Structures are given as structure tokens and as C-alpha cells.
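We give this protein:

***
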Amino acid sequence: MDIKTLHDADIIGISTAKTAFDTLATAFGQHIENWQHEVVDRLGHSEWTGTAAGHANTRITDLGTELQAAKQELGLVSRALQDAYDGFAAAQANLVSALDDAKTHKLTVADDGGITWDKDPNSPNFAGNDAENQAKQIQARITAALNEADHADQTINARLAHLATNASNGTGLDSATAKTDTDAANALLQAPAAGTDPNSVKAWWNSLTDDQQHRMILNHPEQIGNLDGIPAAARSEANKTNLKNLIQDRQRQLADLGPEPKQYLGYVKGEPVINPEYEKWKAKRDALQEKLDGFQSIQNRLDGKLDGGMGGPGSNPPLLLLGIGDQGQGRAIVSWGDPDKAKNISSLVPGLNSTMAGVGGGDAKTAKRIYDSAENSARANGDVPPSVASVFWLGYDAPQLDGPSVLTKDRAVEGGEAYNKFLAGLRATHEGAPAHMTAQGHSYGSLVVGQATQHPGGLAADDIVLVGSPGVGVDKASQLGVGADHVYVGTAKNDPVANAPSPGMLGGLGAAIYETFAHPDASWHGTDPASQTFGGQRFSVADGTVTDSHDNYFGKDDKGGDSLANIGKIVSGHGNTITREDPR
């Protein structure tokens, strides 16, 4: 497959052929129905008996079975053509998009895929200082589109050749053959429901052929990408497709909103009267734009448009997209490195004020800093080559400061269930010996982790890290299911979230005095994880200030002290080497 062939391909012909086979299958079905009424039913109501009648009835019954099998096979040709159309259409659209972007960036794409550009800063066609990086990204997209078209071509050839052979040698008239072929086609359409046990999902995925897996990714990216138990590489491929679909859908919805209504209907006593239609329009527009900005920030990260290409095509480690969706405030899960292959896996749950837009920006860098710290710790301890995957998991609606949600555990309960399933999925799909897995919770995210541990079977983690925690919903580290000596706590002296008073402290002077003496280690959501009563392993972090300490546990602006290095030691499986701090 080459650029010109794919670009100029008239794929409408495939759709036309599919329609023709639909018409043929319908007509054939009518013939079978007529056969049933005019021959089978008439013969059944006749009084013909004897040896010849017996042989005739047997043959007529067999013929009816053969006709039904043939009808099934005709239907499978139609389905194969539809899948082929979908595959070629997706590949062609991706190629055209890449070529359009090349033109936008003043890059010239040759027929063989080579890319050149004007390097003269004084030329009106100067492609800019980032041209080489843009060229690499576009070339990768072109190659992927051509590979997709090749795969679709090989797949349709194989499927149609199989069905043609069945038709020519008569095996397509066999009901068992038709059932096998139909079951194989149906497998392309039936993904397990969301929430299915990840081990069952993995068993289903493994039962599919390579072609069936590929078709599921192509035809149902929103299901496959967010299904725990699907291997990470397949999830990422599906989610990257779904992300583009989500961006296009939000762009379309914004365009469909129509022109902005008048903001004011007029004035009464000099005060403007708000137009209710404007308020409705603006609320819809703002919600759509917020989601679009979030999706676009992640796409920009994957395209290498942020931080010098970090996370873009060819980055080392690769950035995988393990989850994306528009439920609630939006869902996004990214991973530096492949968790199916890594020896050590970290999965961080963020807390207060986390948004989808942040995942593509600073949150992705947070996960990368954890990755780097864990790799450094692994090397320092003789683990060569180091093997790490660092996940940032925004799989729930994190509380925002526009309401009281941060004060309750409702979102943590819901998020904890999803997080529990996600880690179980990583366990199910991991290759080779079980990985060393660290569950991390920051701020309200630590409560999510705490709730995740309370599900039957516990949490698929070996170590737990809690930083800036307002409590995790339990009173003892030993209640988190990994052993108190594997629960690590980092709390900055001046962190206003981790040091927030318990609810009882807010109930007036008498209640505050009682709470101080009766529950001196109480936090907002249970016992203070940094306290001696809780029983975790407290590691050293910088004191920070009231304004910056809560955000500095992961090395932001180099203000976290030993915190990031300690987290890297824990993630790499060397928690026994942390710099310790006495519990309070």
C-alpha cells in the first residue's frame, strides 16, 4: 500500500458491494421461505408414504438445512465487506488528516512518504524551528495509516477467500461450518460488559484471533480502551482512536450550539436583566469547552506538542493512554512505560481540584517524575536494566472547590471501586512473574485508595503510599490489607489538607475540647495517617509552606525535599531504604 493508492481509493465501491450482498441475502431468504411454504409444508400435509417418500423427506430436510447455511454465509460476506469499508475508511481518513497537517506546517510529502521542508528562516515557506519534530510525527502517522490499510486489505482478502472457497466446494452448505463462521464473526461484536471481572475479560481477549482483536479495537474503541483486563498496548491503541472521536464529537456539538444569544434582555432601573436563553447556552458551551480542552490537552501530549515532545511519538519511555471517557467530569488514565511488561508499577490517584485538562499537562509530568525517581532507585540498588511503569489514574470525579464534595467520601467510594478493578486488570494482563505494584494516593486520592482496599479480595497492590492525606477511611494502617509495614505516609508539616481538623473540631468549643482529648489523632476522614496511632511508615518530606506544601510531594519546583526520592525507592521495591521521619 502506498500513499497515492490509499489517498485516491474509492472505498464507496466496497459499500456498494455490501449493499448488493444485502439485497441478495434478502432475496435468497425469500426463496427459502417460498420453498418452505410451497414444497416442505405441502409435502408434510400430503399422504405420500413409503420408502421413496422417506428418502424424499430426508433429502428435503437436508436441503432446507443447506439453504439456511448458505443464507448465513451470504450474510457473512456482507459483514466482511462492512468491516473492510470501516477499516479502509479509517485508514484513509487518518492519512488525509496527516497530509493536511503536513501542509499546515509547510512540509512537503513525497509519494514515497519522504518529507522535506524549507529551512531558510527568510523564506515565506520557512517551516519553522520545530519542523523536524513535526515531520517525524506526521511520518509516523502516515506509516500507521498505510499499515492500517494493509491490514484491512489482507483481512478482507482472507475472509472473502475463505467464504468463496466454502461456496465453491460446498462446505458453506454445511450447518456446522456456517455456525463456526458465524461464531467467529459474532466474536467481533460481543465485548464483555463494563465491570466484568478482569480475569474473565483477559480470557475472552485471549480467545480471539489476532484479526478479531484488531477488529474489536477498530470497531469498538470506546469499549476496548476502557475495559479492565485488556492488555495495555491494545487499550492504548483503542483509546487513541476514541480520543480523536471524542474531540471531533465535542467540536461538532459546539458548532451545533448556534450563535450566542443576547446576554441581556434590557435594563430595569439601570440594572441589566439576564437573558435565560443566554445562561442556558453559556452553561452548555462552557461544559463542552471544558471537556474539549481536557481531551485536546491529552492529544497534544500524545502528539509531542508539549514540553519538547515529551510523550509524543517515539518517546522513551512511551506514553500509553489506558483510559479516556466523557463520563462525569471526564476520565483519563496515562502510563509512562508498559505496565504489562514492567517489573515495578506505580499507580497514582490524584485528589482535590484534579481535572482532565491537567492530565495532559502537569499531571503527566508528575507521573514522569515518579517514573524517573523509581528508575534511579532501581539503578542505585543494582536493578539493571530498571523496569518501571508509572500510571496517573483519573478514573473518577475528583472533588472541586466549587462544592462540599471534598468533605464527604461519596466520590471516594465510587472511585475506589473503579480503582480496585483497574489494578486487578493490571494484575490480570501482566506478562511473566507478578509485578511489584504500588498504589499511591495524593490528597483526596488517598481516601480513594483507602476505599479501594476495602473491597472483597483487597487491592492488587504490594505497597501503598499516602501523601497529603486527610484520612483514608480506616483507623489503622493494618486495615489496608498490605501490612502496616508496607503502608508509607508522607505529610508536610505545613500541609493545610493533611492537617485539616476533624469534623468534631468544628462543632464549637466544647466539641473541640472533647475531640482533642478523646480523639487526638483524628483527621477529616479517619485517623491521621501521619500519626503514631495509625501505624504506617512515615517518610521524610520538606515542611513547605501553607501555600505550596500540598503540591510538592512529587518534586514540583524541587521543593519536596526527600519526598520524591523516597517515593521512587518504594515504587522500585526498596522501601526499606527510605529516609524516615517520626510519626506525630
Notes: Residues 318-489+524-577 form a domain with the Rossmann fold fold (CATH 3.40.50).
